[in-house]
What does this fold into?
Amino acid sequence: MPSLPALAAECFRNPAADRQAPYGAHRGTILGAPALAQAERDLTHWQGYAATPLQPLPALAQALGVAAVHYKDESGRFGLGSFKALGGAYAVARLLCRELGARLGRTLTTEDLQAPEVRALCGELTVTCATDGNHGRSVAWGAQLFGCRCVIYIHATVSEGRRAAIARYGAEVVRTAGNYDDAVRQADADAQLHGRFVISDTSYPGYMDVPRDVMQGYQLMVDEAARQLAQRPTHVFVQAGVGGVAAAACAYFWERDGGARPVFVVVEPDRADCLAQSAKAGRLTAVTGDIDTLMAGLACGEVSHLAWEILEHGTDAFCVISDQAAVAAMRLLAHPLGSDPVIVAGESAVAGVAAAVAACQNPAARQALGLTAESRLLFFGTEGATDPQLYAELVGEPAEAVAARAGARA
It folds into this structure.
């Protein structure tokens, strides 16, 4: 019979948190309801769109001493295996609409991109980005979907399985030396040299429009979860790399619920905790050196500036976890407690689960995060087994076998 693993995490309250601050017009220009409505109109009409399932985990909730646990399972999103399908591909579409609309002298929609004369123009443009895997796969898929060229940069430790998954969509894949942030800089430099368009999920001064589109696409996932829940969660645990998906989730609830929003907890790997370090320093702070982690999608050393506009004051607490805690959480979901559903969850998907398990087992952390018997926890399971070989090594069985058990239990 599976049991709850004993886990540890560093959890601390955000010294700059301000639950009474209004969401405000400025933040609304970064992530706001009108832009979400546009993303929803576009994405829900794409072939293959379906809302991903929200899985209740009552046995886990009982073990943690809380009222409810829900896990938003993004493993089936558009067949790409992760929530990133909502971000990169949507940003590709938005960029093509802007660039080609300017050439044609009219406003274009994503549906217009499928018209033969517009699609022919798409073929003249090249999009590019750096990636740990999932974002690049989404950008490559979007480029293939709309007929533009694509060059994707991966850093030294990105697995061969993730490289092949990107190349499968017709992208040219370039492996660089160094870490993720080095790959970002190389992609940007080569884009300027060759006239390519960068589709990045991280923002920096002078580069804001595309990351804003990426985050707005992510908000559709949050909106789906909110609609699927009978009650608002009291706590939302969201993993962070550069902070894009965390900002999307935080902004959604802050804009709608104000000071009554859920307690918002950002979770990072202990080797790449740039948001936690920024919170401790009271300013944007990069994590340098070896930021390699099994949670490849979270192996980022520099915070997205746009995301920080939301997270600096909107985050209630930060938790930092080890790779070992993430692996334990993957195994817990593959071999769940009681009659909870079996879930195939990748390394970057489970950070929130790992942090919550650790916090609930630690009286000081439990008190710091305000976790009680009435708490309702929401997690965003942002990927499935996007690297099948690594998943099998970490969990001890192939994802297909876990999925078969999930189907038998359903």
